[in-house]
Design goal:
The protein has about 600 residues and is of the alpha/beta class. It folds into 2 domains: about 5-45 and about 65-220, 3-Layer(aba) Sandwich (Phosphoenolpyruvate Carboxykinase, domain 1); about 225-295 and about 380-585, Phosphoenolpyruvate Carboxykinase, domain 3 (Alpha-Beta Complex). The chain has 15 helices and 29 strands. Strands 1, 4, 5, 6, 7, 8, 9, 10 and 11 form a 9-stranded mixed β-sheet that branches. A hairpin with a 5-residue loop joins strand 20 and strand 21 (about 330). Helix 14 packs antiparallel against helix 15 (about 575-585). Bound molecules: sulfoacetic acid and manganese (II) ion. Manganese (II) ion binds next to loops.
Length: about 600
């Protein structure tokens, strides 16, 4: 037994006062027992056993359907270490305000101890977390999203390190909801929410906020990125990692099916949300996906937009806050054309087709094992991960930002990542469609001062050898993409989905030292023949518009970006300042 783990479990049980403590082993029998209990108490409903075998439906509290960023805190001793983009609470305040909310919170409930591993078993990248929770829904979700139970305890051994995660549903009242992170002591406290990103503590809380701080201390990267392999007709696979804000199509891109004219190409899915990256012995950055499942946005997922996801979720899956059909199948907008009769909406009310409300919550989710994905990479379980040739930053921008451009070099690429802005989505509570700065798609997920984060990225790419070795670094190229450009009439200019392969293919040729490009003030964009448009149906003139660089428009945004950087004061790396100034000059602003 692991003494520190046992002591912590005793301490938490003494404070939260559960009726019983259950150590989870991740076995089928345990899973079935928990599901049986939740079917009885109404937490779960069984879905149509023919169409969705071994799959379940869950409705969360109507005020608890997305991440609550305003209730998410970084609890460092010094406020400056959390930085201007995070909510800060001192550890002492957290002890005074949040710890008492756990007192007796598990009375009448079961306390589950959930050991889990982030990363493939036996991977040198892998890390152990233990989540204590009073939600059985969290337990069965963690079983899909992580490698849970014995495998984690084996990895931990008798005195290994682990990240402590304490979670209680509390009373689900948003007034008593807090998600607190202690990056200085590898600990997470979450109370008052049962929603994915707030409650499945292995995901954003550990794998990004806590791991990000660990990564900075230890010289690696923990990023909000999908990982995919693009295999060309010659059979060579190139891997890229791409950062997009929540609900901007990471899962769709990770599982992309190439258009018909790209015969012989194939996409391999390594991950759809999180990447942990380290230098390998060849000087390249190698990435693993620390997760074992997908927690994907359901609405918009259908046989046309993401056939691989539709196949992945056909069994052994959990659906949260979607609508339900008469015959107990999950349903959401965009799953098929037309709306069936007799739907029950995400709140549990009969749904009238044509009503202004959506039947499924816009942030309703599927939770499905990655191993069921038809495009899952043969390297998914590889302990070393995959070598990354390109980083891609993406945003949801209706105007201005071109379909794709390439940064001039590493430092400029870090500047590009730091300057990303995107329109908000339903993945977090609050207004949707508002433009906000979301550097590296990490704004809600950076567990320390984001100025230091920019500096860490600059250090990763600093000239020279991989630290501690005589191996020269071989850094990925950096790109920015935007699938969401709209015409004056509000129509999407780019078809997106499978057609995004055309953009990936240009990126791949650039990585191989080929691919037509023209230099512009913001970076390189594809030249006239750069993007293969064979068989692409697109409005006349749209391609030119998509690749046009509006220097005046970028210049007009420069002062806002300047204000954003100013928030970081002297924690903003000098190199970001230098890049920003160089950009101003190139834009003629
Ligand atoms: O709710 S999660 O944070 O897990 C998903 C997301 O918003 O990216
Ligand atoms: Mn995400």
């Amino acid at each position: 037994m692991h003494r520190a783990l046992e002591a912590w479990v005793h301490e938490i049980a003494a404070h939260t006062k559960p009726d019983r403590v259950v150590w989870c082993d991740g076995s089928d029998a345990e899973n079935e027992r928990l599901i049986g209990e939740m079917l009885k108490d109404g937490t779960l409903q069984r879905l149509n056993a023919e169409k969705f075998p071994n799959s379940y439906y869950h409705r969360s509290h109507a005020s608890d359907v997305a991440r609550t960023e305003h209730l998410t805190f970084i609890c460092t001793e010094k406020k400056d270490d959390a930085g201007p983009t995070n909510n800060w609470m001192s550890p002492a305040d957290a002890s005074a305000r949040v710890w008492p909310l756990f007192a007796g919170a598990m009375k009448g409930r079961t306390m589950y101890v959930v050991p889990y591993l982030m990363g493939p078993a036996s991977s040198p990248f892998a890390k152990v977390g233990v989540e204590i929770t009073d939600s059985a829904y969290v337990v069965i979700s963690m079983r899909i999203m992580t490698r849970m139970g014995a495998v984690a305890l084996n990895h931990l051994g008798e005195n290994g390190e682990f990240v402590k995660g304490l979670h209680s549903l509390g009373d689900l009242n948003p007034d008593r909801r807090f998600i607190c992170h202690f990056p200085e002591r590898n600990e997470i406290w979450s109370v008052g929410s049962g929603y994915g990103g707030n409650a499945l503590l292995g995901k954003k809380c550990f794998a990004l906020r806590i791991a990000g701080a660990q990564a900075r201390r230890e010289g690696w990267l923990a990023e909000h990125m999908l990982i995919l392999g693009l295999e060309d007709p010659a059979g060579e696979t190139t891997y890229v990692a791409a950062a997009f804000p929540s609900a901007c199509g990471k899962t769709n891109l990770a599982m992309l099916v190439p258009p018909a004219s790209f015969w012989g190409y194939k996409i391999w899915t390594v991950g759809d949300d999180i990447a942990w990256l380290r230098f390998g012995p060849d000087g390249r950055l190698w990435a693993i996906n620390p997760e074992a499942g997908f927690f994907g946005v359901a609405p918009g997922t259908g046989p046309k937009t993401n056939p691989n996801a539709m196949e992945t979720i056909r069994k052994n899956s959990i659906f949260t806050n979607t609508a339900l059909t008469k015959d107990m199948c999950p349903w959401w907008e965009g799953m098929e054309s037309g709306t069936p009769e007799g739907l029950t909406d995400w709140r549990g009310n009969p749904y009238t087709p044509g009503s202004a409300d959506k039947a499924a919550h816009p942030n309703s989710r599927f939770t499905a094992p990655a191993s069921q994905c038809p495009s899952i990479s043969p390297k998914f379980e590889d302990p070393q991960g995959v070598p990354i040739s390109a980083f891609i930053f993406g945003a949801r921008r209706g105007s201005l930002v071109p379909l794709v451009y390439e940064a001039f070099d590493w430092n400029h690429g870090v500047y590009v990542g730091s300057s990303v802005a995107s329109e908000t989505t339903a993945a977090a509570t609050g207004a949707v469609g508002v433009l906000r700065r979301d550097p590296f798609a990490m704004l809600p997920f950076c567990g320390y001062n984001m100025g230091d984060y920019f500096g860490h990225w600059m250090n990763i790419g600093a000239p020279g050898n991989v630290p501690g070795t005589s191996t020269p670094k071989r850094l990925p190229k950096i790109f920015h993409v935007n699938w969401f450009r709209q015409s004056a009439e509000g129509k999407f200019l780019w078809p997106g989905f499978g057609e995004n392969l055309r953009v990936l293919n240009w990126i791949l040729s650039r990585c191989r030292g080929k691919g037509e490009a023209v230099e512009t003030p913001i970076g390189y964009v594809p030249g006239p023949g750069g993007i293969d448009t064979t068989g692409l149906s697109i409005a006349p003139g749209a391609m030119e518009e998509l690749l046009r660089v509006d220097a005046k428009g970028f210049a007009a945004e420069w002062p806002q970006l300047n204000e954003f950087y100013a928030k970081f004061g002297d924690r903003l790396p000098a190199e970001i300042r230098r890049q920003h100034e160089a950009q101003r000059k190139r834009l003629g602003a």
